[in-house]
Each structure stands twice: as structure tokens, then as C-alpha cells.
Amino acid sequence: MKHESLKQASIHELVAAFAKAAELHGQASIEGAHRAANAQYVKLSAAGRELRTRGEAGRSALTELLQDSNPRVRLWAASHALEFAPVLAEAELERLSQGPASVLRLDAEMTLSEWRAGNLKFTED
């Protein structure tokens, strides 16, 4: 989904784009395909940003992704929900940071650490 089409996308379409990009980002990261991972990061960040601008319905859709079966989707949803649902988001990041040693676990640990240090900010560009 192109950036310009995000404004016209439904919340359902944004959620689907966010989840797909989060999953593909995780796969690319594991494979060491950094350009592909970066491209997916841009897509998921844009979809997450657009969801946050959609008011309660968009924010609710992001928090619903905290129940997704894919841990990468949960990681990114939690990261994007930290500012408006910190209790739910931190709880999911804590769960992920207790998992088996992996890049996912490290990402969850680092996200929590940076959030708690006040270093993570999300802006509505």
C-alpha cells in the first residue's frame, strides 16, 4: 500500500497492511535481508502512524493486534501502542522479552528499555 493511499484506506486495510509488513519485516530480518526489512519498516510505520491518527477506532485496532498469533505483529503493535495504551503495550513487550533467546526477545527488551528511558517518541508527521 502506497503512502498516498493510506489516507483513503479503511481501518481494516490499514491493520492488514501493518500486520503483513510486520511479518515480512521479521522474515527479512531473520534472513539478513536488510534492504527488504527496511522497506517493510517504512510500510508498517506509515500504517501504524495512520492508524494512530484515526482516533479511538484506529488505536483500538492497534491494541487488538496485541492478540495476533504472530509475535512480530504483537511486537510492532505494542511498540506503536506505547503512547496511548502503555499498560497493555508494556505487558505484551514484557511477555515477549521473557521468551526464548532470539532477535524478537532482544527487540522487545530494547523497546521496553528505550521507552522507559524516555527515548521513544512517536510523531504524527
TrEMBL record:
Q: Which InterPro entries match?
A: ARM-type_fold, DUF2019, PI3K_accessory_sf
Native organism: Corallococcus caeni
Q: Where is the DUF2019 domain?
A: 13-113
List the taxonomic lineage. Answer: Bacteria, Pseudomonadati, Myxococcota, Myxococcia, Myxococcales
Instruction: List the protein's name.
Output: DUF2019 domain-containing protein
Q: Which Pfam families match?
A: DUF2019
